[in-house]
């Protein structure tokens, strides 16, 4: 066992104190006089407590710990999903208030020039475009929220750095998903591991206060699990977060790939959890379903070569509006939706979601966007705007 690599774990104390306690297990003395960039997961415009985004009090605890450790400068930055206004996501997610409370800067990564970064010996990528602030700070702290993920099993500290990619570069990773490769893993997993060869968190703080289980990262259910995990080792943080989510980390391909390629152990036994008995904090998450069609009665999803951005839109749409689609069932009593560039044979009258399905638009209802937001699907089908009975999450 490597006694030097500590994983701080805490639970049952709320979002702020979980993080404060987990970080207290680590030696933060190297932060003194360093500039610190905090990267939460604020990919969507959503209120606090729904499991979409990192809890603002978890971010507050990280900021406070960095200030106490003597950081010279602190900023919080994000590049959310394409089409999302970063400052709106910060505002709705409670991060703007945290930044004001502690006097730290908020950065919309997409307003800065990208840095084209070569990836040597990449599996899938030869280069990638990373938002420049990421390279302008001494310490990069990844602060993800715990979520299961339809394509990658989980999204935690290392995958959270996909939100450091510039604008549509994130979509490019998704569009790679169905490229033919000789690798057994999904190409998205390979691409995430390619990114890790040029960008890993220096420090990872996983917020497990309210995460998302099932159809994550957008269509799942909130999961109150009330724990936090922190480590200077990015693989150690992610594998212990998996353990606390009741997920065997050895089943997560991108973590395995990064472990292998970066020569960082993915064996929990090689690290030192503090406290040693963290088992009372384990809170099992429901795994993502293998096939999404079966999740929704009377909904048929024709999905071929879609990427998870459109799938996320679709899940959000179905969660909010599926009961409103009854008047629009086709002759077989089903509501048909087609996504992805490989779909060619959805029935007449289907709803074609996303620019990829543009060539089929004469056969039904077309919803443009890459990806479109969920309310656009509702509007295209019903011809009306949805009632403002809950804030749009996109
Ligand atoms: S339209 Fe949808 S499936 Fe096609 S590339 Fe855009 S997000 Fe992906």
Please tell me about this protein's structure.
This protein has helices spanning 14-24, 56-68, 86-92, 95-102, 169-175, 187-196, 234-244, 253-262, 308-321, 374-382; strands at residues 6-11, 35-40, 73-78, 105-108, 114-118, 127-131, 139-143, 145-149, 153-155, 203-213, 221-231, 272-274, 299-303, 335-339, 350-353, 364-367. With 394 residues, the protein is of the alpha/beta class. The chain folds into two domains: 6-281, LarA, N-terminal domain (Rossmann fold, 3-Layer(aba) Sandwich), CATH 3.40.50; 293-382, Rossmann fold, CATH 3.40.50.12280. Strands 1, 2, 3, 4, 7, 8, 9, 10, 11 and 12 form a ten-stranded mixed sheet that branches. Strand 8 (145-149) and strand 9 form a beta hairpin. Helix 2 (56-68) runs parallel beside helix 4 (95-102), helix 6 (187-196) runs parallel beside helix 8 (253-262) and helix 9 packs across helix 10 (374-382). The longest helix is centred in the last third of the chain and has 14 residues, at 308-321. It is globular and about 65 Å long. The model has no long low-confidence stretch (mean pLDDT 92). The structure holds iron/sulfur cluster (SF4). Iron/sulfur cluster (SF4) is lined by residues 171, 174-175, 306-307, 309-310, 339-341, 354-356, 370-371.
Features:
394 residues; alpha/beta; Rossmann fold; 2 domains; 10-stranded mixed sheet; 4-stranded parallel sheet; 10 helices; globular; binds iron/sulfur cluster
Concise synopsis of the structure shown:
The chain has 394 residues and is an alpha/beta fold. The protein has helices at 14-24, 56-68, 86-92, 95-102, 169-175, 187-196, 234-244, 253-262, 308-321, 374-382, and strands at 6-11, 35-40, 73-78, 105-108, 114-118, 127-131, 139-143, 145-149, 153-155, 203-213, 221-231, 272-274, 299-303, 335-339, 350-353, 364-367.
């Amino acid at each position: 066992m490597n006694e030097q690599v500590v994983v701080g774990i805490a639970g049952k104390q709320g979002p702020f104190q979980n993080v404060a306690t987990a970080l207290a297990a680590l030696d933060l003395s190297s932060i003194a006089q360093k500039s610190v960039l905090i990267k939460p997961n604020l990919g969507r415009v959503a209120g606090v407590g729904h499991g979409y985004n990192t809890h603002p009090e978890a971010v507050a605890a990280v900021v406070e710990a960095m200030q106490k450790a003597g950081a010279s400068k602190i900023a919080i930055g994000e590049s959310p999903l394409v089409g999302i206004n970063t400052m709106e996501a910060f505002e709705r997610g409670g991060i703007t208030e945290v930044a004001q409370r502690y006097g730290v800067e908020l950065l919309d990564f997409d307003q800065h020039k990208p840095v084209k970064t070569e990836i040597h010996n990449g599996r899938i990528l030869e280069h990638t475009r990373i938002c420049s602030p990421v390279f302008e700070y001494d310490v990069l702290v990844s602060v993800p929220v715990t979520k299961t993920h339809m394509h990658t099993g989980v999204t935690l500290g290392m995958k959270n750095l996909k939100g450091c990619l510039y604008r549509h570069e994130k979509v490019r990773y998704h569009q790679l998903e169905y490229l033919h490769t000789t690798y057994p893993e999904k190409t998205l997993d390979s691409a995430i591991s390619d990114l890790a060869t040029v960008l890993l968190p220096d420090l990872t703080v996983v917020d497990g206060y309210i995460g998302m289980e099932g159809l994550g990262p957008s269509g799942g259910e909130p999961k109150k699990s009330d724990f936090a995990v922190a480590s200077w080792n990015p693989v150690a943080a992610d594998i212990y977060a998996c353990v606390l989510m009741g997920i065997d980390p050895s089943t997560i391909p991108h973590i395995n790939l990064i472990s292998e390629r970066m020569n960082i152990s993915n064996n929990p036994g090689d690290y030192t959890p503090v406290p040693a008995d963290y088992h009372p904090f384990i809170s099992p998450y429901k795994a993502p379903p293998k096939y999404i069609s079966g999740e929704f009665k009377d909904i048929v999803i024709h999905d071929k070569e879609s990427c998870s951005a459109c799938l996320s839109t679709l899940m959000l749409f179905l969660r909010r509006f599926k009961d409103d689609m009854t008047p629009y069932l086709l002759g077989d009593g089903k509501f048909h939706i087609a996504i992805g560039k490989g779909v060619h044979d959805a029935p007449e009258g289907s709803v074609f979601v996303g620019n990829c399905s543009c060539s089929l638009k004469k056969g039904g209802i077309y919803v443009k966007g890459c990806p479109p937001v969920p309310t656009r699907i509702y509007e295209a089908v019903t011809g009306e705007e949805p009632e403002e009975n809950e804030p749009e999450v996109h």
